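Hi R.,

Here's the chain you asked about this morning:
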Amino acid sequence: MTLIPYDDRDGHIWLDGQLVPWRDAKVHVLSHGLHYGSGVFEGIRCYGGKSFKLREHAQRLIDGCAFMDMKLPYTVEEIIAACETVVKANNIVDGYLRPNAWRGPEQMGIAAQQTKIHMAVAAWAWPSYFPAEMRENGIKIMTTRWRRPPANAAPTHVKASGLYMICTLAKHEADANGCQDALMLDYRGRVAELCSANLFFVKNGELHTPDPDCFLNGITRQTVIELAKAEGIKVIERAIMPEELTEMDECFATGTAAEVTAIGQIDGRTYKVGPVTRLLREKYETLVRC
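And the predicted structure, written out as tokens:
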């Protein structure tokens, strides 16, 4: 398959308050965000021309920037308007939005108080992250050597761009071993998440999910927990150890990109795509298009 570079496409990108031609949306090479990872981003799915939980994502972007000591010069309403403008300008029906904020080139070095905070929103048509066959039968994942750091060592509850460096390394490791994703443990050796998706397990009809005390509590994760409770499924958020994985009946991942994706294998252990996974996947797919 021929890849289409993301800097050489038709369409428009919202950049610092205005729509610009896609190929003209450029950032200087000495931007602080490029050198020091001082950026925050969001990933938002668009279904039928409507962005799912757009307000929640916009608020999380603002909150994440604030945590990173980046005062984003836009309100929730302005971010929503920017996203809606980009969807309309690019004629997106089913697609993906990427709002992104970063520090500019006004100051070079670790300190960055004088940098300007920039923001862009891009959107493009995007089908399911995994092929239909994998979504039906479950993806194959492996445990990576890369681990999630403690909350006092990194801004683990923010979609900060620098945090995804280890995710790229873990994903490359998984790809090289014939897997579709990687299971990341945390610094204590507990089950945490995938490279960019949260994890759920089903045991005796109950839903178990790692307590997100050192990784992102995803909006899709929160949505699936609400859906499960509405269906009378007991949800248990707790520490889960790797040795417990052999006791689980079902396993699936959640995320804006992954949506609700069944997991069929972890390190050689196989899982059936069972009734709870199928029910929550169906409920989620219905919700995002209602």
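The mean pLDDT is 96.

Let me know if you need anything else.
M.
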